[in-house]
Amino acid sequence: MPASLHPLFQPKSVALIGASEKPDSVGRKLFYNLITQPFGGTLYPVNPKRRSVLGIRTYASIGELPERIDLAIVATPAATVPDVLEACGQAGVRSAIVVARGFRESGQPEGLAREAALQQIVRRYNIRLLGPNSIGLVRPHVGLNASFIRPVAQPGHVAFLSQSGSLGDAILDWSAQRNIGFSAFVSPGSMLDLDWGDLITYFGDDPQTKAILLYIETLPNVSRFLSAAREVSYTKPIIAIKGGRTEGGSRVTATHTGAMTSQDAIFDAAFRRSGILRVETIAELFSMAAVLANQPRPRDRRLAIVSNAGGPAILATDALLAGGGKLATFSDTTRQALDRAQVYHPENPLNLFRDASPTHYAQAVDTVLNDPQVDGLLAILTPQESARPEAIAAALQRTLAHVKKPVLTCWMGGAYVEKANEQLSQAGIPTFNYPETAVRAFNYLWRYAYNLRGIYETPRPATQLLTTPAADPAPPRELELFHRARQVGDTLLNAARDTAQTVLPEVEAKQLLAAYGIPVVEAFRARTEDDAVQQAERLGFPVVLKVDSTQIVHKAEAGGVLLSVPDADSVRLAYRRIERTVSERVRPEAFEGVLVQKMYYYRGLEIILGSSVDDGFGPVLLFGNGGRVAEVYDDKALALPPLNTTLARRLMEQTRIFRALRDRFTPEVVEQLEQVGVLFSQLVVDHPRIREVDVNPLAVSSRGVMVLDAHIELHPWSVPDDALPRPVIRPYPTQYEQAVTLTDGTALLIRPIRPEDEPQMVKFHQTLSDQTIYLRFFFRFAYEQRVSHDRMARLCFADYDRELTLVAEYPAANRIVGAGQLFKTRQEDEAEFALLLSDDFQRRGLGSTLLRTLVAIGKREGFHTLRADIMTENTGMQQLARKVGFQVRFDADEGVMKATLQF
């Protein structure tokens, strides 16, 4: 059971093992920092070779200390660390920092062996370990400097977590000159135990921390990182800078998808998916922390620029448009108001000229910000003779007191504007030295808001409009479709296993796509000329002939594709030509016959849709400009599965070709493409045996979406199923769906909640009485508060690793009638449960069914304890808990009934 991190970050007792007086030694620096910044607890230096260090009595070993230690800092050589940590474990030490190098990062066998030994000790004694290869941590608010960093960090509200210790040292030095304060500085080192997920979760709960800044080089546990970041980013900004972004990390493959996937682009996709803002410089890391802490989020990217000079406004405009922002267009009402205020040429950028007074500035800014077509504002001032920087800053402060749109300022110059900049900063109005820098901050701000909205925007259901009505006159529900599709996929993959194939032939590849409701042009095999003619005549001319080969990925490049074949004689000629060309360009045995398919005419665009596997992130999805020039145009975007319709749209919006799709085709066609993305994502999630998928081209036209070619590669069959790469974001857990029948014969479906359920959950709350709400939540609050989008989004967009909500669906009435939840606590091997039932479904056996289901899931998820607090007057819930096997007792301290079940 992972222990709390409070002993690490707020220790009452600290032991420094390896304390020293040797100049410039790590033990000396650590000890000096600990004694010069008292943390309010007891410090014990440990050194068997000295009786005292810097005049303070030492102890020969950790076992001789008079009390149990919260934090042990191990400053001894790497070879000694396993024995030292073993002694710490035996002494009951709760947490430790290991500063030595010489473990996994060394790449040497002895380093790997030492790290394995540390891992065993940490697990055996339940010690929370920071490091190895860590320079320590600093907690200014509690006066703890458990590091060998020289600068003293000032108290503040930013937690800075840096994988580079030397960079952290430099930044703390730099920040001291700029009066930047910290709630914490942490060097996670090699992250043998504590990783990014642990640290983000801790500082997400830390009341002193308002923003979390990350310097990242590697992600050792991607799933935990994304899970923690996604939860915390909803309430606190997380800003990251990634080191090593130009390093080539993609695997070279034969498919377009593999060749177009880079490690850095995957990091971008991961950050977007978890609500993290990625910046490019250290200066931006800290400036955006200030912007996000003090400015509201913009609705869109439309910026207004108000300036007393034309040149800086032009530079700001260029930077805005180059970064993807938009120049706001003023409404007629705004232009008329500016005319009345005698503003010359009331257009954006708005030039007030050199003689602009504080009143002019304030009026102009107020008028522009009231325009609904403006999402944010940049005010620029240059130090011209008549300019009054401080007075204009004061006027802006008064004007912006109740503004709910982001406002950035750029008071250009040096000493002349220094006091004005201080005024603005103290008022929480971000100020920048250069207009381009300010505009980059606005572009970051709207991108951050855009990404967060994407995570919690209610998606449309992935409807079955893609199924062929003739083939399926009564389209199944979405979940039923996926069950059917999964069965088809399993059958196809099992057939490939029987023949040891690792490349799925195109016929089978298209069958798999079609099973998921993705439209395909069917292909039929022909092993002889006569077979080809027969298939063509059955389909109707003209047709397409393609080489049938598991050895050739790009058929056209091998001369294996002929289009618009008009008649039977031409089919025979085409067959022979493909056979000859493939034999010459590749090899004769690569020709296994041809595929015949109906010629699909369209006037539209070609898309590539693919998936490949990354060593760290698992399956990665790709969308971009397709056809033969897919790699030439380099117009692509990546995403992590699974997707919903909102996330599929966000993926497409990252590309340039999306603008052409949106402009040329109807919204229905674009929505169909969205749904293809969702269905394709589900296919990838359902079948981890798939190594790569290349759908290219995916034709998009006014007729809709159609797959013309598809290639699927599988992982070698020597890789066991339980070792296959899985999505780093846990997909919808289909294994927890079950049909149940209540005692009165009512048939229900119990299943995990989905983002698409938000409208139904709103209706569910209409069926709950005030008393039901009071007994569940311990207080009464209005229906409008309960069903706000923010609250419903947090419920429906559940991270299945952290919180599992089951809904009881009543298909006959198309409504949700109950919900049960398991919340993973910070102890991780225990969970809290909660139930909520529609008033008309109480006392019908639904409560006991849901609770028993939660208990079964809790066991399967590896929890050891389930808990709940129940109001004393909620006797029905108490009886239900006892019926299912919970121990229920009264807690006098908290005044509630405690229900506990241990496995």
Molecular structure report:
With 903 residues, the chain is of the alpha/beta class. Among the domains are: 6-209, Rossmann fold (3-Layer(aba) Sandwich); 297-456, Rossmann fold; 524-593, 2-Layer Sandwich (Dna Ligase, domain 1), CATH 3.30.1490.20; 734-902, 3-Layer(aba) Sandwich (Aminopeptidase). Helices cover 38% and strands 22% of the residues. It has 30 helices and 38 strands. The strands form seven sheets. Strands 31-32-33-34-35-36-38-37 form an eight-stranded mixed β-sheet, with helices on both faces. The protein has a seven-stranded mixed β-sheet with strand order 9-8-11-10-12-13-14, with helices on both faces. It starts with 5 loop residues before the first helix and ends with a strand. Mean pLDDT is 90; it is low at 247-254 and 464-476. GO terms for molecular function: acetate-CoA ligase (ADP-forming) activity; acyltransferase activity, transferring groups other than amino-acyl groups; ATP binding; metal ion binding. Keywords: ATP-binding, Ligase, Nucleotide-binding, Transferase. This is Acetyltransferase.
The number of helical segments is: 30
Distance between the termini: 14 Å
> Major beta sheet, specifics?
8 strands, mixed
Indicate the multimeric state. single chain
- Beta-strand content: 15-25%
CATH homology superfamily of the domain at 6-209: NAD(P)-binding Rossmann-like Domain
Low-confidence stretches: 247-254, 464-476
What is the CATH third-level topology name of the domain at 6-209?
Rossmann fold
Q: Given this structure, which CATH class of the domain at 6-209 is correct? A: Alpha Beta
SS elements, strand count: 38
What's the gyration radius in Å?
Answer: 32 Å
